[in-house]
Design a protein that fits this description.
Blueprint (H helix, E strand, L loop, with lengths): L7 H21 L12 H4 L3 E8 L2 E7 L7 H14 L9 H4 L2 E8 L3 E2 L5 H7 L6 E6 L2 E5 L10 H11 L12 E5 L1 E3 L1
Antiparallel strand pairs: 1-2, 1-3, 3-8, 4-7, 5-6, 5-7
């Protein structure tokens, strides 16, 4: 699915699925069951998503995948549930919190490898405010969605913090590091 193919109705449907999955999770302790026949082809084609929950403008949960492995609508339902109840950084969401949640969905394009010769070259190829990045170095891996540019505005700052998230030091660099870019539709 080209990630640019979502229209306003698709976004509205995905937002409703995410909200319904959280509400269903409060009652049944599992994600909302999805009947694919209820959705159009754009939403039933494999897609990758992240669902981010904020409460009082603070992160309350964020779960997603980087590669499309199930229908997009099911991916969103599963990640909304997981962000609310299974993010290891937070306790499970309560019914009182549900009504105050801010919900943000990001649908990801397929990651593409960035070709670079060294860290300085990589920094010139990153597009601030546009690129989401995946950094891999052997067993270390981390990603930042494009929305993270709101807090980390320069490529150097973005990459340094991404290294920390991946379990590396900010000044770590070696020829085995691989970086991929992706874009998102966020709503």
């Amino acid at each position: 699915m080209p990630f640019t193919s979502l229209n306003d109705d698709d976004k509205k449907n995905l937002r409703q699925v995410a909200q319904d999955s959280i509400h269903y999770g409060l009652q049944h302790q599992r994600p909302l069951p999805i009947s694919l026949s209820d959705y159009n082809e754009r939403l039933t084609t494999p897609g990758a998503s992240f669902v981010t929950l904020n409460l009082n403008h603070q992160l309350r949960g964020c779960i997603g995948t980087l590669e499309a492995c199930q229908p997009l609508v099911k991916d969103v339902a599963d990640h909304a549930f997981a962000a609310a109840f299974q993010d290891p950084r937070f306790p499970p969401l309560t019914a009182d919190e549900e009504q105050h949640l801010e919900l943000h969905i990001s649908v990801l394009s397929k990651p593409v490898a960035i070709e670079f010769s060294n860290e300085a070259d990589l920094l010139t190829k990153i597009e601030p405010g546009i690129d989401g990045l995946i950094l891999e170095d052997n067993s270390h891996k981390g990603t930042f969605l494009p929305s993270v540019w709101e807090q980390l505005a320069t490529p150097r700052e973005f990459l340094s913090h991404l290294k920390l998230k991946a379990g590396l030091r900010q000044d770590d660099w070696n020829d085995d590091i691989r970086v991929y870019r992706y874009h998102t539709i966020s709503f």
